[in-house]
Design a protein that fits this description.
alpha+beta; 17 helices; 12 strands
């Protein structure tokens, strides 16, 4: 593969760029990522956590190349996988994932995730630069690599192969960028390494992503079931990892949990998250951005139009509020000033789940809703419950490593490891759920009422305890 340019990166060193990748990088659509913080409000607690989606996208592309080389992927498919890695985050809104929480809260019942927008943004980049040449089928392949297929999932169609652009013999390519089966992919490899370097100077994570990516001896393509627990699951070609690396792979999810606990979902970060979202909700209806055909969108609706979304960056949103003289934005400006002056919401209670392994997540969610409803009766406007949920990358309490394929030295056969085989290297509790009850104003009488309500709730719900 021929490379047009090399870019220096503080995580991976020298990153090579093909002509196609160079053309995509040098568009206003891609350069927008320089204005999107990767870690949302984490910089409010960890000042060095200000890196953006721009270097992460380059790093994901680079790590995808390493995996493709180790798996001996043909050059054409390799470049397309790299492009998917390069473009997988183009659709993020300001402050990355936090914007998705804002959109969901501001538009009840509306579903939006950045992956679909990432593909639409790539199409905008192609429109901006006609030198970017990608065939229709290859565009579909890139879209599937980034977005998956939400209509054909393990839950909905367990007996069907989910993709169109590439067949069962090339399914393993879909595991590289955004692995919908196990969550083990190069996106995660890059952000764990990059965030750890920025926040803790490489002191928190234990997994050596470079060793796995650089070794042809640890990765192999084998035949196996697409869905481990589905009897009629299609047989496909999947990525398998040497069985001796199971302990190392488990560290990926422990590293992820560690970064969530110490940084991403730090208590103070969660308070700032809540305050930022409140600023945007207060401002949303009064700040408009134009999309296709000149149609105007509020902040909360801009994600419905990729052109409107492409105009939003962290600074554009915050400065539009901060510098406005519109009286309709006064509340938003006042709250933003509180953030600047670090006059944070007050903590009423910090609550932690108690689970011996038998507690249903639905039961836990139901009890949380009861707490939220009771606090609303005390003060609908000034009391709020903020959730902290740390897991191993799955929506339930399962271990994603159980869905991975492994192989033994000298063998071309893949196999799964069961929970008994992994129990010696898996933490006893694979998830954690905590609640922060916050009061938005400094009102001692309201704080006392809220604390009393929490105490009553704790008494009636022994699956939760005060910290």
């Amino acid at each position: 593969m021929e490379y047009r340019k090399h870019i220096m990166d503080n995580v991976h060193g020298k990153i090579a760029v093909t002509d196609l990748e160079y053309q995509i990088i040098n568009t206003s659509i891609f350069k927008r990522l320089k204005g999107i913080k990767q870690l949302g409000t984490v910089h409010e607690v960890f000042p060095t956590g200000e890196h953006t989606r721009f270097p992460h996208s380059l790093g994901t592309m680079h790590t995808a190349r390493k995996w493709c080389e180790a798996l001996q992927v043909d050059p054409h498919n390799q470049e397309l996988v790299e492009v998917a890695g390069l473009c997988h985050d183009l659709g993020h809104g300001p402050f990355s994932h936090l914007w998705e929480f804002f959109v969901k809260e501001a538009n009840p019942g509306f579903s939006w995730e950045h992956e679909e927008s990432s593909y639409e943004m790539l199409l905008l980049a192609i429109e901006e630069n006609p030198e970017i040449k990608i065939s229709e089928n290859d565009l579909l392949f890139i879209k599937e690599l980034i977005c998956g297929n939400k209509e054909k999932t393990e839950e909905k169609t367990p007996n069907e192969y989910p993709y169109k652009a590439r067949g069962k013999d090339e399914f393993y390519l879909y595991e590289i960028i955004s692995n919908k089966i196990t969550g083990i992919d190069v996106d995660k490899f890059d952000y764990l390494a990059r965030d750890d370097r920025a926040l803790f100077n490489k002191s928190q994570i234990k997994f050596d992503y470079g060793r796995l990516s650089d070794s042809e001896q640890l990765l192999k393509v084998v035949e196996g079931k697409l869905y481990k627990d589905k009897e009629q699951s299609p047989l496909v070609k999947r990525i398998a990892i040497r069985d001796k690396e199971a302990r190392s792979i488990q560290k990926i999810f422990q590293d992820r949990s560690e970064l969530h606990q110490t940084a991403y979902q730090h208590k103070t970060v969660k308070i700032f998250d809540r305050m930022y979202i409140d600023v945007w909700i207060l401002a949303s209806s009064f700040i408009k951005v134009s999309g296709k055909n000149g149609q105007m969108y509020t902040l909360a609706k801009a994600c419905e139009d990729e052109l409107a979304l492409s105009k939003l960056t962290d600074e554009w949103v915050m400065q539009s509020i901060r510098n406005s003289e519109d009286q309709d934005l006064q509340e938003a400006r006042d709250l933003l000033q509180r953030i600047d002056q670090r006059k944070m919401y007050k903590s009423v209670a910090h609550i932690k789940i108690v689970d011996d392994g038998s507690l249903s997540l639905k039961t836990a969610e139901y009890s949380v809703q009861i707490l939220k409803n009771s606090l609303k009766e005390v003060s609908d406007k000034h009391l709020v419950v903020v959730d902290l949920y740390i897991n191993m990358g799955t929506k339930d309490k399962s271990n994603p490593v159980e869905k991975m394929m492994f192989y033994k030295k000298g063998s071309d056969k893949g196999f799964f490891k069961n929970s008994n085989e992994l129990k010696t290297i898996v933490p006893e509790q694979t998830y954690d759920k905590q609640l922060f009850v916050l009061c938005k104003i400094d009102d001692q009488e309201l704080l006392k009422k809220a604390q009393k309500e929490v105490d009553v709730w704790i008494t009636n719900h022994p699956e939760w305890t005060l910290m």
